[in-house]
């Protein structure tokens, strides 16, 4: 949510795909692609690695669960775990360089993956290690920021707990 911010760059509440596409300027796009070519290559390499891991994990998941959900999870996993995480890293660092007074970022990989495989799963901890790297990078960038004395606060909107599914445990839904 934008929280009333006049500059909520990555906020779904204030952005639409059509508005983003309308703002694209070809020359600026080419320049941005050149300036961020290393970052884009890094995201592509991490995305490819995550895709391979996700496909391997999907095969294991298909054996244990519904295959349709497993297949749908692969692109979501790569998008949330790599693309969105790295985009947040870049946007926050740009905001730090710009001297933005308050910056809020949401890193979703652990939440998404722990819901999928459990909070203690290798998948969830893999996502958490990527988030830790982004936090470290943002913290270091905040320490180097000119003109502002940034305070980095890390918090979670909720915890995760391994539980048994009611339907499986008792053979009926909660509504029943």
Overview of this structure, please?
With 176 residues, this protein is an all-alpha fold. 64% of the residues lie in helices and 0% in strands. The protein has seven helices and no strands. It has helices at residues 17-22, 26-35, 37-64, 67-98, 109-117, 122-144, 166-170. Helix 3 (37-64) packs antiparallel against helix 4 (67-98), helix 4 (67-98) packs antiparallel against helix 5 (109-117) and helix 4 (67-98) runs parallel beside helix 6. The radius of gyration is 19 Å and the shape is globular. The protein starts with 16 loop residues before the first helix and ends in a 6-residue tail after the last helix. The model has no long low-confidence stretch (mean pLDDT 81).
Order of helices and strands: HHHHHHH
Name the helicity range. 55-70%
Q: How far apart, in Å, are the first and last alpha carbons?
A: 36 Å
Reported for the largest beta sheet, the result is: none
Strand composition percent: under 5%
**From the alpha-carbon coordinates, what is the Rg to the nearest angstrom?**
19 Å
Low-confidence stretches: none
Seen as an oligomer or otherwise, the chain set is: single chain
Q: Write down the overall mean pLDDT.
A: 81
The class by helix and strand makeup works out as: mainly alpha
> How many DSSP E strands?
0
Shape: globular
Question: Count of DSSP helices?
Answer: 7
């Amino acid at each position: 949510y934008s929280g009333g911010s006049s500059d909520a760059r990555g906020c779904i509440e204030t952005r639409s795909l059509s508005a983003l596409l309308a703002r694209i300027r070809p020359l600026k796009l080419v320049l941005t692609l050149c300036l961020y070519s290393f970052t884009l290559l890094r995201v592509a390499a991490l995305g490819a690695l995550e895709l391979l891991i996700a496909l391997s994990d999907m095969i294991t998941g298909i054996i244990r669960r519904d295959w349709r959900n497993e297949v749908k999870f692969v692109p979501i996993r790569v998008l949330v775990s790599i693309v969105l995480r790295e985009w947040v890293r870049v946007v926050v660092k740009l905001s730090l360089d710009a001297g933005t007074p308050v910056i809020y970022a949401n890193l979703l990989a652990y939440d998404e993956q722990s819901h999928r495989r459990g909070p203690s799963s290798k998948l969830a901890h893999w996502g958490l290690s990527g988030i830790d790297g982004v936090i470290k990078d943002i913290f270091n960038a905040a320490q180097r920021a000119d003109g502002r004395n940034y305070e980095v606060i890390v918090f979670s909107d909720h915890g995760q707990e391994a539980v048994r599914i009611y339907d499986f445990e008792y053979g009926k839904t909660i509504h029943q």
